[in-house]
């Protein structure tokens, strides 16, 4: 199995994929999105990675591709139409939405608990809704990750100042959950690999390991793991990092990351996440070959 990962070659997670490739009996190549080339010829369009045709691979994993969203989605659809496995498959159908509010809406539509809050695209709407929040509150950048652009705000005036600096629509405004415990659960193929309890540092509130939080492996009840698996399935994410909080014993989905970091998770839990993902993609490729005529 030959897997092309579109992402940053120097990122630790992508290095782990390359490390595990031999043990997983596959070949992994990591290239930045800027390596994609689209050639329009008399025979039709050809998509290349550097000088190599995309069709030379068995699977395409689009891990990170901003700001070239349209180009990445074009490559995904092209790959899928030529029999490659695409992770995530919905990318090959042009259904990419990067929005925490979109994720929360889809999860809530299916009956899962999410934090309450709002996003507004103009200053007037933001100012009108801020007094309705309970304070302190959490302000999150719409496109933030690893705990960046996440702020604990004491009152509406402070939130308004932050909104004016960043511009309308940049932030979502959420209730600050009274969390019993928070977990990171990784899923591959919508099945849980394991769980890690996350504890915020004494001087902070963010539960991200990259922001100083600590982690420890835990065994969670099946009903809690099922909620995380459902979240990944609803959002169609083959490989996902689900942040799940318990609030008065009730599971609340805080976030579902489509290209999760997992180095800290591997270290804390002992799970070989990179190998699990590669094995899953290999199974998808085998299924594709079995279903394809000829």
Structure write-up:
- By secondary structure, the protein is α+β, with helices and mostly antiparallel strands.
- It folds into 3 domains: 106 residues, Rossmann fold, CATH 3.40.50; 60 residues, ATP-grasp fold, A domain (Dna Ligase, domain 1); 81 residues, ATP-grasp fold, B domain (D-amino Acid Aminotransferase, Chain A, domain 1, 2-Layer Sandwich), CATH 3.30.470.
- The protein is 31% helix and 29% strand.
- The chain contains 8 helices and 16 strands.
- β9 and β10 form a beta hairpin.
- It is globular.
- The two termini are 18 Å apart.
Quick overview of this protein structure:
With 294 residues, the protein is an alpha+beta fold. 31% of the residues lie in helices and 29% in strands. The strands form four sheets. The chain has a five-stranded antiparallel β-sheet. Strands 2-1-6-7 form a four-stranded parallel β-sheet, with helices on both faces.
N to C succession of SSEs: EHEEEEEHEHEHEEHEEEEHEEHH
Task: Please tell me what the overall shape is.
Answer: globular
Give the strand content.
25-35%
Structural class: alpha+beta
Query: Number of DSSP helices?
Result: 8
Task: Examine the coordinates and then state which fold CATH places here, giving the name of the CATH topology of the largest domain.
Answer: Rossmann fold
Q: What is the helical fraction, as a range of percent?
A: 25-40%
Low-pLDDT runs of 5+ residues are none
The CATH class designation of the largest domain is Alpha Beta
The major sheet is characterized as: 5 strands, antiparallel
Average per-residue pLDDT, rounded, comes to: 91
Q: Please count the beta strands (DSSP E, at least 2 residues each).
A: 16
Q: What is the domain tally?
A: 3
Strand order of the largest sheet: 14-13-12-15-16
CATH architecture descriptor name of the largest domain: 3-Layer(aba) Sandwich
Oligomer: single chain
What is the rounded Rg? 20 Å
For the record, give the distance between the C-alpha atoms at the N and C termini, rounded to a whole number. Answer: 18 Å
